[in-house]
Amino acid sequence: MNAAPETSGPLDTPALLEAARAWLAQDPDPETRQELDDLVVAVEAGSAEALADLHSRFDTRLAFGTAGLRGAIAAGPNRMNRVLVAQAAAGFARWLLEHAEGGTPSVVIGYDGRKNSDVFARDTAELMAGAGVRAVLLPRLLPTPVLAFAVRHLDVSAGVMVTASHNPPNDNGYKVYLGGEDHGSQIVSPTDAEIAAHILEVAQGSVADLPRSERYEVAPDDVEEAYIAATAAVASTDAPRDAVSFAYTAMHGVGWRTARAVFERAGFATPALVEAQADPDPAFPTVAFPNPEEPGAMDLSFATAREAGVDLVIANDPDADRLAVAIPDPSSDSGYRRLSGNEVGALLGWRAAELASRAAGGAAFGSLACSIVSSPALAAVADAYRLDFADTLTGFKWVSRAPGLIFGYEEALGYLVNPDTVRDKDGISAATAFLDLANELAASGRSIGDRLNEFAERFGFFASDQISIRVTDLSRIGEIMASLRATPPSSLGEVRVAQIDDLRDGFEGLPPSDVLRIRLEDGSRVMVRPSGTEPKLKIYIDASSDQGDLAQRRETATARVAALAAAMRELTA
């Protein structure tokens, strides 16, 4: 979701100081104003370190992209702060008014428990109302999926969610959704560029001059209640709902209040709660990085699970739009193994296909979708059930728009299980679907581990790995991508390359994206792309086998992935 900063070139010192003083004059936040004033004084005193810091804040600005804005909270246009948010809100308001087709455009605004989320949300509500847009503020900090739900439930023109999801503690962000024919999905190109142009127009003046109004609405509690009812209904099987025990963590985020109500409504067992992480805390004190994918982030969850002896661990990230699942594993030091996003996506996709088949009397309709860097396993499910399948670019702004969608996911722990109500990834509804599946299996004496084996026996064993190359100089990422394009590999390890698809200019209906897809002669696949949120080059490796028994399939697929990973590390060193 993080947009790369726009480049305008380095400012000379007088211009830099002038820009900083102009920013100070319009900044309503005493904390960031003091921080910037101290920097200016230090630069004037000759500090090279302060000068470099000021350049990093003012030579560029956070660009408004297809998923909005995200960055560290600090002063300056290349950081998240009240000035930048005011510019974004006013620019988006102008776009909404420009595209209103009769009547007054409307927007619903949500926020999570991060630092300044409530402040940024109220600023947005006041500025939208001041510009003539009907603004509706959610009544309290709530999960991102509730905001995505509210866009459709309230039938508004757009939605704004103030969140940085699972980013470091000092980050915050701004996600934008559209209603109407977009059905509550996140914005895509060219809408992002149109809004960005309006934001830059606003930035030519002072946000202190923008009209504000406190005549915005506060949404009633029944918006969250409607979400709870719709999400609990995702548990649709007739099996007993309380056969499976589980631990739950909100990762210091906003998920627990809403998730608890959904679990109770669905009839699930009361979870063993990770108490230390249950309440929102913008400092995220018990985790180094509030992302369930990061090493150590689920240690407290595993400790709680071991003490309670539960069957599953369910974790949401801080804004509850992602889901992590762990199952018992005696071979692990923690006693539990976190399933990969691809494993959870395959199981939930299989569940969706089965439910669609039952509902249609054996002839399922609709489509399964996943991002191009996610496992090919979902395509195998779609083929077996004669469902349509869509490969999309990374991001739920694309996954959610697949025609006829009944289920979609991406490997980074994002799942869309109820597209009729939420057109975005939703960690709470995904948890509900997964717990429903686990309880249905338990009713017949089976576990999630058994289901994974059944998947491999029916569709083949799919193995995946991911390499992240973190850089300090962003130009290194461009150099690696350019090198791969200029001298593409003819083989990786001992396997010949069959085809390389370059998505830079678009490919087979996919919009342009800086992605290389390398297909190997044995059916394996390697995807290479720059991260959209961090200074990393990301490499995704997938292989599968449907030959031999389960052990042989696992051995073959994992060996292929390991060999490809070694080859890619050597190639990009």
TrEMBL record:
Keywords on record: Isomerase, Magnesium, Metal-binding, Phosphoprotein
Q: Which cofactor does it need?
A: Mg(2+)
A GO molecular function annotation here is: isomerase activity
Work out whether the entry's keyword set contains Magnesium. Answer: yes
EC numbers: 5.4.2.-
A single Pfam family it belongs to is PGM_PMM_IV
Question: Which EC class is this protein assigned?
Answer: isomerase
Task: Give the matching Gene3D superfamilies.
Answer: Alpha-D-Glucose-1,6-Bisphosphate, subunit A, domain 3 (3.40.120.10), Alpha-D-phosphohexomutase, C-terminal domain (3.30.310.50)
Known SUPFAM superfamilies for this protein?
Phosphoglucomutase, C-terminal domain, Phosphoglucomutase, first 3 domains
Segments forming domain Alpha-D-phosphohexomutase C-terminal: 497-552
InterPro entries per the UniProt record, alphabetical = A-D-PHexomutase_a/b/a-I, A-D-PHexomutase_a/b/a-I/II/III, A-D-PHexomutase_a/b/a-II, A-D-PHexomutase_a/b/a-III, A-D-PHexomutase_C, A-D-PHexomutase_C_sf, A-D-PHexomutase_CS, Alpha-D-phosphohexomutase_SF
Q: Where is the Alpha-D-phosphohexomutase alpha/beta/alpha domain?
A: 62-202, 226-326, 341-458
* Similarity section: Belongs to the phosphohexose mutase family.
What protein name applies here?
Answer: Phospho-sugar mutase
Record organism = Leifsonia williamsii
